[in-house]
Amino acid sequence: MKELVQQFKGKKILQAEGNAKIDPSDFVNKKIVDFKSWGKHFLICLPKATIRIHFLMFGSYSINEQTKPARSLRLHLKFTNGDLYFYTCSIKILEGDLDEIYDWSADVMNEKWSATKAIKKLKAIPGTLACDALLNQDIFSGVGNIIKNEVLFRIKLHPESSIGKIPTAVIKAMVKEARKYSFDFLKWKKAFELKKHWLAHTKKMCARCNIPLIKTYPGKTKRRTFFCTDCQIKYD
DNA sequence: TGCCATGTTAAACT
DNA sequence: GAGTTTAACATGGC
Known about the structure:
Blueprint: E1 15-17, E2 34-38, E3 41-45, E4 50-54, E5 60-63, E6 75-79, E7 82-87, E8 90-94, H1 98-101, H2 115-123, H3 130-135, H4 145-154, H5 168-190, E9 214-216, E10 225-227
Antiparallel strand pairs: 1-6, 2-3, 3-4, 4-8, 5-7, 6-7, 9-10
The chain binds a DNA duplex (14 and 14 nucleotides) through helix 4.
């Protein structure tokens, strides 16, 4: 999405409407300074404020639709060269310096991503389970439940392993794979072949052992988790 | 056709 | 006050 909206960078917002809780009329006549993202946050930077979009579970967007979309419109921004539409998303206005609001080094897809800082943050929460740690947006901003399951499977780590008991080499592998898989995820999503590459998520059988995978809702996050009791090692 | 889920926040609880 | 649970959002996929 960030790539597709670049056509509106530097453009002035001619019209703004929608059922967002914030007043969209504030955006009219403001210029888009930049588009940024931090994990699952999409940021529309205006001169003195930032529009923060989060798509939650079912959010969507469209660009330059010819006919007015039938779906309930959360926000529509009109530009001289096209239109940007948002549906079913959370919209919030951020005031102040984004560098103070966001830790860019926590975003797994950001160029400022720091594996070293991620490892330090993990060391500070030894009692946390691996399945919860991977979903912690302050450590792995951008990682969601699918990526969690796939990363754990790929590094052969049991989701209920305690962070403090996991060997350093495996922690390093987790941090490295979280970033790598996120880039693969984007690549496969663009090719509409995301599911084709799932090895654990929603799977019935282990791709390595060919034995049934376990499906549970572990940890504090209680999110759907698929894992193999044979090849994913539990450290506790 | 009904149920479930790629996520987060805030209110309502304990 | 801290921690936990529930509701809300609202739609596509299976």
